Amino acid sequence: MSEKLYIFDTTLRDGEQVPGCQLNTVEKIEVARALEALGVDIIEAGFPVSSPGDFNSVVTISKAVTWPTICALTRANENDIKVAAEALQYAKHKRIHTGIGTSDYHIKYKFNSTREEIIERAVAAVKYAKKYVEDVEFYAEDAGRTDNEYLARVVEAVIKAGATVVNIPDTTGYCLPEEFGRKIRFLKENVKGIDKAIIATHCHNDLGMATANTISGILNGARQAEVTINGIGERAGNTSLEEVAMIFKSHKELDIETNINTQKIYSTSRLVSSLMSMPVQPNKAIVGRNAFAHSSGIHQDGVLKNRENYEIIDPRDVGIDENSIVLTARSGRAALKHRLHILGVELDKKGLDKAYEDFLKLADRKKDINDDDLLMLVGKARSENARITLDYLQVTSGVGVRSVASVGLLIAGERFEAAATGNGPVDAAIKAVKQIIHRQMTIQEFLIQAITKGSDDVGKVHMAVAHDGVHYNGFAANTDIVAASVEAFIDAINKFVH
Ligand code: KIV
Ligand code: ZN
């Protein structure tokens, strides 16, 4: 019989702590429910002591989902643990995730401490967490660079203190796959009582090896993989859930299975990308736009003869149904509802009526409506309740003339207008918006992507705007690229102007 691999999703903690990826509570609940439907075993819902917002997220997610264990992160101190336990009070299944740095770098330069003292603090934290919950996970931060003999001592001590899961993070993404696998094997072979706990991997992707390291860890005895949707997370990100799930689904000979309903992978990926305004790179394994696109003539010919000539995964296994990707002006409300359901978006009757009305308007301008268009429509309906919205935009531009833009914004229902000239239509329009919103802000990233190919296509704009040292992401899509740019700018501004 296959062995079970527990999937621990940290999109809402490690993923959400990325600058610009913050979600509001309603959005977090939407993601948590999607993760539950996807079949994840554990949802890391936040770091409750870090802010009232994180505390509330753990509370509301605990109430919103039933099956997965809800996990809350802490440092190894009593106050963090007490606050986490309080935030978890409504969870049907709860876990406290506590830990401390164990590499010599962390011991010396972060804690100004000693190896012995770190073991004492780790044990004390686990014992204290056990007073509140049965299920306690311990993380040895920077385990990737921790000496294996010492790591084994730490792990043995925390298991003795009651840890049910021991997390071995490659926090800096430094390890080589073979080295990380050896580390897990070393723990399996040298820690007394190791069979009383589950070993977890938590790999970061700084050198592009997060998934390889995770798989190596699992092949050497780990049975929990800590992952995020689309691999989002600190710096270069975490191991991506979809890659781990599909590796074990594709390689049956490894005899390891997860509870992931892989047909929900695509919709969950789209949902997270759109709510976090975080684009998925086109060549991203499993969920990137090009993951199943065959462009060379030789490949296309081969796939038409037999899909398995060039495809190791059937796109339908990850929820991409090629036959129903495109909707047109002739598609009915039921088709729209079905497609939105596949994308993980559930609307009530009023929401669906509005989405259908917007869909028909767009279909008048654009022949084929694809998934990104639909997510854009639904996102737009959400942002219509925002404090600042674009009322009108008029630009004049051309070759050899300076561009001029007039902009009208509605701020809490009141109209404000401004006009500006600029180095092109986007520059002029952004300057006009800045005349209305008197805040210090600079555009840090500005990415324009055409969704498909035609000149009637919808352009997607992702923008990162810095304000008071924090980055806020904005997203918009429109067949008019200047309008999409201004809307993305306003979307970002709405995240810091209240
Ligand atoms: O990367 C890391 O070490 C972490 C821990 C807090 C688990 O995210
Ligand atoms: Zn991490």
What is the compact description of this entry?
The protein has 498 residues and is an alpha/beta fold.
CATH level 4 superfamily of the largest domain: Aldolase class I
Bound molecules: 3-methyl-2-oxobutanoic acid, zinc ion
The first-to-last residue Cα distance is 55 Å
> What is the percent of helical residues?
25-40%
Topology:
Elements: E1 3-4, E2 6-9, H1 11-15, H2 25-38, E3 42-46, H3 52-64, E4 69-73, H4 78-87, E5 94-101, H5 104-110, H6 115-130, E6 136-141, H7 148-160, E7 165-170, H8 177-190, E8 198-203, H9 210-219, E9 224-227, H10 241-250, E10 256-257, H11 265-276, H12 297-305, H13 333-342, H14 349-365, H15 371-383, E11 388-396, E12 403-411, E13 414-422, H16 425-436, E14 442-450, E15 459-467, E16 470-478, H17 481-494
Helix pairs in contact: 2-3, 2-11, 6-7, 7-8, 8-9, 11-15, 14-15, 16-17
List keywords for this structure.
about 500 residues, alpha/beta, TIM Barrel, Double Stranded RNA Binding Domain, 3 domains, 8-stranded parallel beta barrel, 17 helices, about 20% strand, binds 3-methyl-2-oxobutanoic acid, binds zinc ion
Structure description:
The protein is α/β, with parallel strands linked by helices. The protein has three domains: 3-275, Alpha-Beta Barrel (TIM Barrel); 297-382, no CATH class; 386-494, Alpha-isopropylmalate synthase LeuA, regulatory domain (Double Stranded RNA Binding Domain, 2-Layer Sandwich), CATH 3.30.160.270. 40% of the residues lie in helices and 20% in strands. The protein contains 17 helices and 16 strands. The protein has helices at residues 11-15, 25-38, 52-64, 78-87, 104-110, 115-130, 148-160, 177-190, 210-219, 241-250, 265-276, 297-305, 333-342, 349-365, 371-383, 425-436, 481-494; strands spanning 3-4, 6-9, 42-46, 69-73, 94-101, 136-141, 165-170, 198-203, 224-227, 256-257, 388-396, 403-411, 414-422, 442-450, 459-467, 470-478. α6 (115-130) packs parallel to α7, α14 packs across α15 and α16 (425-436) packs parallel to α17. The longest helix has 17 residues, at 349-365. The N and C termini lie far apart (55 Å). The structure holds 3-methyl-2-oxobutanoic acid and zinc ion. Zinc ion (ZN) is lined by residues 14, 169, 171, 202, 204, 234.
